[in-house]
Every structure is written in C-alpha cells, then in structure tokens.
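QUALITY CONTROL LOG
STEP: pairwise intake check
CHECKER ROLE: data steward
CRITERIA: each record must contain a sequence immediately followed by its structure tokens, with no blank fields

ENTRY 1 OF 2
RESULT FIELD BELOW
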Amino acid sequence: MSEVVIAPRRSEAIAALREHWPEYLMEAWGLGMFMLSAAVFTTLFEHPGSALHGAVADPVWRRALIGIAMGLTAVGLIYSPWGRRSGAHLNPAVTLTFWRLGKMAGWDAFFYAIAQCSGGLAGVVLAFALLGETFAEPPVTFVITTPGVQGVAVAFAAEVTISLLLMSAVLAISNSDAWMRWTGVAAGVLVASFILVEAPLSGMSMNPARSLASALPAGRFDAFWIYCVAPPLGMLLAAELRRRLIPASEVHCAKIDHDPGVRCIHCGHEPVRGSR
C-alpha cells in the first residue's frame, strides 16, 4: 500500500522539478542577491575600518542608510525579470503563507523553500569570499540575526509583528486592482522601515532562510528558533485575518508582482504570444 502512495508522490515531485526548475533557481538567485547586498552594505556602514562607518558616526543614521539600501534591493529584485517570473517570495514564510491560502502546489512550495535556503547560503558564502574577514568579524559577523538587549521574548514578539504587518500589506495591496502594481514598492518601504525601527530588537529577519544563511557559516545559533517560528507564525496569522475579510479563492495569485507578460506556475497564466 505504501509503495502505491509513494510512487505518485515521487512522480509529482519529478514533474514539478522538470517543469518549474527555472522558477526554483530564480528564487535561489533572488535571496542570494539579497544576502550579498545585505553583506556589502552592512560591512560598509558597520565595520569600524570602513570609511563610511567613520563618516556616519550616528548608528541610527547608519541603520537608516542600510535600510534604504536593502529596501531598494528588495524592490529591484521584486520587479526584476526573474522576480516577476518566480513571484519573488525569497522567503519560506511567504511561500508557506501562499501555500496555506491554496495559491501554490505543495511540491512548488517545498522546492521554493529549498531553493531559498540554498540561495541565501550561497549569497553569504560569496560575500565572505569577496569581503573576507571584515565580513566575518564583529560587529558584522556574517550579518547574523540575534535578539537585542531587551531579550528573547521581545525579539519573538517583534518578529511576529513585523511579519504580520508585511504579509498583511502584501495581501491587501496585491489584491487591489488599483494598487497591485505598487506591492513591491510597499514591501521595500516596509523592509527599510523595519531595519531602522525594529532591527535593534531582533536583527530584523522576517525570514527563516535569511537567518539560516547567516547562522551556518558564522556557527552562531543564538535563539535561532525565533527566526524559524515567528516569521511563519506572523505571516500565517496575516493570512487567517485576510481570510476573514475575503475568501481565499479571491486572493489573486502567489506573486508579489503579477506581470501579464510572464508565465505564472501558480495560477497557470501564460502570456499572450507577442506580448513581450
């Protein structure tokens, strides 16, 4: 009986890989580029030996500038050709939420999460190869996410809150015909704002793959469970709240930016020939 069940599941997984592997690789690329950007800008502004660190003495201003850089990075990735193709989740918690809403197939969600974790780690490893020990030593330390001085409970609550806010905004704006084109911009603004305001509390992760990508090479897993539990919890809560407002069937798609000129493996959209 078990062999009868396993065989179709295996064939479904193989079919998903065969047909959707470009989107999986695009998700890996996206988080890899996000982590590389985070590594470069954090090192430039936070390493004591950096000229920019000396030029911007106020840590709040440094954090604001890093936030702007990362917000722009997020916007660039979301609206890039590959981001529009995959949907630019770049985060297993986002992927899990869309799966929970019935907007993603199970195997696509599984392979997205694997790709995101692999891509994020590759981005950090590449950053270390380019930046060397300045990236590995304190205070940069592979851009790890750790609880702030307020402690674990505050960090957990903060991660749940920012994840809830981000996913609520994505679901609300991406499902508004008038505003959907601005979903990526809104996400970027929130990323920048959270880095400025929330980063001192938890390191501002919102993303299990992002935290894992830094923790592994650093060998630092300080309260790592927070970054595995809180972001999915916050985003799933956003999905449940959204379901109270509209049926899950009315959520448009599992893409941050749904470009009609690009194929979508989630809703089955195929671009009209000659639209690009």
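ENTRY 2 OF 2
RESULT FIELD BELOW
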Amino acid sequence: MKSKKVLIVEDNDLNRKLFENLIGQLYNFQSAVNGLEAIDYLTKEHFDLILMDIQMPRMDGISALKRIQHNELTESPVIAVTAFAEETDRISFLKMGFSDFITKPIRPKEFLESIASHLSRSKKSSEDLAQTSLTASILDKSVIFQLMKYNSQETIKAVIRDFLLDTSSLVKKLEIALAEKNEQDLLENLHILKGNSGTLGANSIYLIAKDTETFIRADNWTLVEEGIAKLNREKSIFETYISKEFIFKL
C-alpha cells in the first residue's frame, strides 16, 4: 500500500504529527498546514486521498474544497476532518462534495479503516464514523492503547511531553487573552487546546475547553473566567495523574 499517497491538511501540530505517524506506517504522505498549501501541492503532484481539516488559518477546508472543485485539481476523495457539531452539519459537509466525514477526536482504528476504505474505492457509510459522547475523565486510556498499536512507546511519551508543555503555554496565553478581553486569541488558543486534548483522550480538558468556547460566543465572561480557571486546575490534575498513575513514566 506504500504506492498510495495521502495529503494531510491540518494546522494543529500535535494532530498533524499523529496523523503522520499513523498514516506513514501504511502509506506515503505529504503534509500541509492550510488550504493554500494543499492547493499548491495538488497543482504539482497526484494524491490518492486528501484529509482536509475544516478550521484552518489563511484558507479553511471548505474554501479549499471549493477551489479544488472549481479548478478540477483532483478526482481523489477529500475527507473532512473536524469536530462533530450537529447532524445537519455532517450532512452539509457531504453535500458540499466531501467524500466522507471523520470526527475529532479521532480513534486510530476507525481513522485508518476509513482511509483504507476510500483508498480501496469501497464505500463506507459516514454513519459508521459517528463518535460516541465523551465522558469527563482525566484520560481515556483506550485512546492511548489504540495509539500505541500504531506508534512506539517512545513516540507516545514524546507526544505526551509535548502536550504537557503546550497545555501550560496555552493556559498562560488564555489568561493573558482573558485579561485583555481578546476574544480572537481566546478562541484560537482554545481551538488548539481542544484539538490536542481530544486527540490524546484528555477528555476533561477537552470538555472544559469546548464549554469555554461556548461561553465566549455567548458573551458570558463570568463563565469564561471560571472555565479558564478550571483548565488551569485540570492541567495540574492531568500532570499529577500522568506522573503517578500512567502506564509508563515520563
């Protein structure tokens, strides 16, 4: 299957690295960090499948798909990768021309099965990719165990170290943005934190970040402040959990 080549379009560094680790064991790949880069690659070479994140800087996934369709850059499947919102949103993505829909946080087994299905040209209902509701837990170990099936223990340890460093940095940025009432910075940093925590199964952090996004859009600054304080506490809880109870020491 190394004859197949996948274009990964994802702006989140942690998500992109994990996608590369998963996909790279089975297929060739190239990565882009936004829609403009993806279009540039598609004008130069052929890809058998495109994984397209939806929310990205410079050019989002929907705009990139429209450009791809207008210029007829590829006939290969383009799979939308984004956080699940409403059923009508999922239907809308498929109507736009995406070949399928994968929800974040991804689950490696289902993620690779979907890619393999499209690369083999067999049809797979997008209903099979629906994610179950997340429960508020410090860490969903099943996510880590699935990741370890496709990545070495050292790789996972490095990813978790990066996650801890990134989370500390992001929470500090959120506190600064809160003090300045900078809504754009708040939403951008929460988006990154939500993507990182969702990928690793840090469900409590993910759910708090998701709720805090909602509070910002509702202009409820009291709950935004509470949400960021909760993220700070949950970050410390996660660090303690990893150091004492996790399946391997960092």
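INTAKE CHECK: passed for both entries
DESCRIPTIVE NOTE, ENTRY 2: The chain is about 60% helix and 10% strand.
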